[in-house]
């Protein structure tokens, strides 16, 4: 930065939360990337380590209560990934009107992309299972897939994708949008009377992750101009 005359006393650095990045610029003002933090919300939110197969016991009532991400949601994601893998292996994408999209760990919101592509093609996938010589593996996966839950998960994830696109700009400032973005996401994750038990649990789980991983952006204080 000194070589390019870019090092100034009032520089503000925006990076991910990696310790080596923080250490490199510890003498300067640092802000965690809001979009990276959003990705952390979903990465940890959909981690198997937080699966509700592990139950917690309420000390007050002595009841077993589900914690973490519902196992049913993970099953939907796994099934969609299996359908995607089958489509790639059997060249199924070539006969679909719109191709199925593969989930990539390093690409933000790619789980949503995969789920949406399967949901969009679900009717066509059902039709392909009924033709003579249709894939039995595809039939098994399509029948096993909880399509109503799939649509609900997509609906929950779409605001995160919108938020990422809103905050990921190169030519205009977006810091003033970080707090409103979090408020909006929090509203989206608020429980609704029409929510199923699974959706209520998923929303509560993601709400906790939002509070945990989005705080570093909001609590950062900039020097006064």
Give a nutshell description of this structure.
With 225 residues, the chain is mostly helical. It has helices spanning 19-24, 34-45, 71-89, 110-120, 122-130, 136-144, 147-167, 178-188, 197-213, 215-219; strands spanning 12-15, 29-32, 55-57, 64-66. The protein contains 10 helices and 4 strands.
Structural notes for this entry:
This protein is mainly α and 225 residues long. The chain has one domain. Helices cover 53% and strands 6% of the residues. Helix 4 crosses helix 7. The longest helix has 21 residues. The two termini are 22 Å apart.
Strand content: 5-15%
Total count of strands: 4
Number of DSSP helices? Answer: 10
Main sheet: strands, sense, barrel: 2 strands, parallel
The shape, in one word, is elongated
What Rg, in angstroms, do the CA atoms define? 21 Å
Catalogue the unreliable spans.
54-62, 216-225
Indicate the mean pLDDT: 85
Oligomeric nature of the chains: single chain
Structural class: mainly alpha
Helix content: 40-55%
Span between termini: 22 Å
Task: Strand order, main sheet: write it out.
Answer: 1-2
């Amino acid at each position: 930065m000194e070589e390019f005359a870019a090092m100034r006393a009032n520089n503000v650095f925006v990076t991910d939360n990696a310790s080596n990045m923080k250490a490199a610029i510890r003498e300067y003002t640092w802000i965690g990337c809001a979009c990276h933090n959003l990705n952390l919300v979903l990465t940890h939110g959909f981690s198997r380590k937080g699966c509700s197969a592990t139950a917690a016991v309420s000390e007050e009532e002595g009841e077993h209560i589900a914690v973490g991400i519902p196992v049913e949601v993970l099953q939907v994601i796994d099934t969609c990934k299996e359908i995607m893998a089958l489509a790639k292996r059997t060249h199924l994408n070539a006969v679909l009107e719109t191709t199925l999209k593969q989930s990539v760990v390093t690409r933000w919101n790619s789980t949503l992309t995969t789920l949406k592509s399967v949901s969009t093609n679900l009717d066509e996938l059902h039709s392909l299972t009924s033709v003579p010589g249709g894939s039995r593996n595809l039939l098994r996966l399509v029948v096993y897939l909880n399509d109503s839950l799939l649509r609900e998960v997509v609906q929950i994830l779409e605001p995160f994708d919108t938020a990422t696109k809103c905050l990921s700009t190169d030519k205009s400032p977006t810091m003033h949008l970080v707090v409103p973005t979090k408020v909006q996401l929090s509203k989206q994750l608020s429980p609704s009377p029409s929510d199923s038990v699974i959706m209520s649990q998923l929303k509560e789980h993601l709400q906790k992750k939002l509070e945990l991983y989005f705080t570093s952006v909001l609590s950062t204080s900039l020097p006064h101009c």
